[in-house]
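Dear H.,

Thanks for agreeing to be a second pair of eyes. The structure we're designing against is below in token form, covering all 198 positions.
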């Protein structure tokens, strides 16, 4: 009986990541298709239902939006909207948090923020891997951290959360790793995958 249960659990654990990934992609595509199709029908009444059309239009619209935001011609419009959002009560806090998150995942060229780093105490034979969220303490309230410190966020494994530490810059070593890879490894506790063992 134990052997049957173990075999069943092994099959379940092997199938679960595949199922959740496929379902997540399907759910996102279905949501995007529904929302975009509803918008298209509002603009073009009588438009026939075409499965997948909303997804294609939605992806193209996001791509065009990216081109417009990166263009100097329309950047001032984006900055004007951003200025309004940053001055609206409650909304400004939500917008600032989301913008900081996106800047952390996709930092600008030459920006140290979002860099994956390894932090090692000179007197302890251990290392922690995290994301540098601040390259200095400029702009922070007095007493938060002394000069020469950087802020590093350490995500916790198997849950959403983590903690931030202000550490001396000399303790920090940049790691040649993308943020997505580091976050994925941190989420799973840096468990070695079957592919890596092969």
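And this is the sequence the design step returned. I haven't edited it by hand at all.
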């Amino acid at each position: 009986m134990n052997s049957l249960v173990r075999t069943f659990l092994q099959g379940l654990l092997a199938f679960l990541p595949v199922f959740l990934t496929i379902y997540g992609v399907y759910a996102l595509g279905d949501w995007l298709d529904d929302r975009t199709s509803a918008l298209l029908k509002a603009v073009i009444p009588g438009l026939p239902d075409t499965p997948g059309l909303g997804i294609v239009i939605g992806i193209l619209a996001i791509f065009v939006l990216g081109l417009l935001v990166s263009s100097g011609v329309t950047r001032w419009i984006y900055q004007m909207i951003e200025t309004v959002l940053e001055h609206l009560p409650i909304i400004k806090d939500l917008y600032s948090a989301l913008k900081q998150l996106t800047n952390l995942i996709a930092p600008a060229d030459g920006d140290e923020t979002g860099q994956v780093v390894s932090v090692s105490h000179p007197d302890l034979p251990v290392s922690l891997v995290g994301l540098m969220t601040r390259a200095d303490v400029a702009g922070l309230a007095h007493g938060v951290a002394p000069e020469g410190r950087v802020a590093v966020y350490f995500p916790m494994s198997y849950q959403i959360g983590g903690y931030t530490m202000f550490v001396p810059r000399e303790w920090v070593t940049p790691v040649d790793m993308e943020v997505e890879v580091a976050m994925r490894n941190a989420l799973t506790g840096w468990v070695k995958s079957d592919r890596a063992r092969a």
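Two observations from my side: The radius of gyration is 23 Å. The mean pLDDT is 78.

Warmly,
E.
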